[in-house]
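Lab notebook, bench 4. The sequencing result for the construct came back, and we need a structural model before the next group meeting so we can plan mutations. Quick request posted to the team channel:

Model the 3D structure of this chain.
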Amino acid sequence: MKILSIGYHLSQPRSIKEVEHPNKMQIETIQYAGYNQFWVEPNSAREMASIAAHKALSGTGIQTEDINFIIAGQSGVPDYIGIDFSCQVGAELQCSDIRTVNLVEGCGSGISTWFHAASLASTLPSGKVGLVVVAQRVSEAHQDRFGVMNAILSDGAVVAVVASDDWQTSSPTLHYLAGDDMSDCRYVDMMRIEYGGGCQPVLPEGYDARHDKLGRERIMDIYQFTPDDLNAFLALRQDNTIKIIKRAMAQVGRPLNSPFLLQTLEGVQSIKDLCRRMDIVSERSNLNLLPELGHVGCTDLLISLKMLIDKRDIQPGDDIIMSTISSGLKWGAAIFHYDRG
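Done. Here's the predicted structure in token form:
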């Protein structure tokens, strides 16, 4: 499978310095983690993804009737309970008689979409393409965008047009080489949103998500962690990130050539530590995009990829590692090669 084009949408930038929040220490912690701004989308995830899809298709010559499948992944609260995000995107493009896959796997959707896409792309009819769509839009009524560990949640969407390996093009393309994921299900409650589902469907009167327990405090409370338990948990997060990356790399069948690392934008120190342990210089990562983007959930990796290609930091001939960690608790990795065409 190869990626033919990518389009993304980020709407309104906001400075973290302008944030009014009841927990000033949390905002200071987020700033210390390297974040300067975040992005807010006033419209729906459906509209946001539609804009990204039209950008991805623009200039390719590909028409709606050429789209064979849409695979959509989402982090955050959907526009409506039970809505199928992949079909929402298809509705915006006026698609009918099309295959769709809808994933709601938190940030992990940024990896798991590729497994389905690679499978479907291998059976694409001649002249047909697929779309991989990932989006995050925070429902601030349900979730504090400043309250997830040491990150700040941004809204954004990104779409990739994908085709089978035999699609002919003279332009550089991204080839999917391998991928893998794993879950430690003991931590499924770590980042759950308490209200809006079947157990507690209604927001209490006067509820303000900004007063919820934050980050590590909430984890300590849910799992009755001691400080030593928390340190072991944080080590597990990093160790499993490396484990899944190495598992994906082993599938490629050759050593990666000075790879570029695209990691979930979960804080400067976390990415620096991962680069150090993977023996990758931090300049060959998406670390420098963190202050600008915030943490855009499952879109982090694909938006980073598009931005770094546009900046020419990623060059034809480069191998690329995509790596994410998400609620579940889930780790995933995928390997791409940027081919000269």
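The chain has a mean pLDDT of 94.
Will bring this to the meeting.
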